[in-house]
Specification:
Blueprint lengths: L1 E6 L2 E3 L5 E9 L4 E9 L6 E7 L4 E3 L7 E6 L4 E6 L8 E9 L3 E3 L3 E5 L2
Parallel strand pairs: 2-11
Antiparallel strand pairs: 1-3, 3-8, 4-5, 4-9, 5-6, 7-8, 9-10, 9-11
Length: 115
């Protein structure tokens, strides 16, 4: 089992920035990748970005050049730096972990981009 705790969401104006954090605990040695998904009201959950234990990243086209994922293995934490935020980035953002046998999602943190 892996437990995930996210933080850092909130309300921001268009063009602004936010940083999300996700701390993993539990069976962290089985983690092969971490990342973020998001889900807007009325829409399906979609990939934002993932990063493997080897540092390989996979960004959604919609966030390339604006969002940056980073990982602190010593703290079992993954960060999502979000710049140049747009209203269409408004969604619940959930931390994601892939292990050898399971996928895990956190409870989510709300990001609202609005003036």
């Amino acid at each position: 089992q892996v437990q995930l705790v996210e933080s850092g969401g909130g309300l921001v104006q268009p063009g602004g920035s936010l940083t999300l954090s996700c701390v993993a605990s539990g069976n962290i040695f089985s983690i092969r990748a971490m990342g973020w998904y998001r889900q807007a009201p009325g829409k399906e959950r979609e990939l934002v970005v993932t990063i493997t234990s080897g540092g390989v990243t996979n960004y959604a086209d919609s966030v390339k050049g604006r969002f940056t994922i980073s990982r602190d293995n010593a703290k079992n934490t993954v960060y999502l730096q979000m710049n140049s935020l747009k209203p269409e980035d408004t969604a619940g953002y959930s931390c994601y972990v892939r292990t050898l046998t399971h996928d895990y999602w956190g409870q989510g943190t709300q990001v609202t981009v609005s003036s």
